[in-house]
Amino acid sequence: DAKTTQPNSMESNEEEPVHLPCNHSTISGTDYIHWYRQLPSQGPEYVIHGLTSNVNNRMASLAIAEDRKSSTLILHRATLRDAAVYYCILRGGADGLTFGKGTHLIIQP
Amino acid sequence: KAGVTQTPRYLIKTRGQQVTLSCSPISGHRSVSWYQQTPGQGLQFLFEYFSETQRNKGNFPGRFSGRQFSNSRSEMNVSTLELGDSALYLCASGSTGRFGYTFGSGTRLTVV
Question: Cα–Cα distance between A78 and B2 in angstroms, integer?
Answer without folding.
Answer: 28
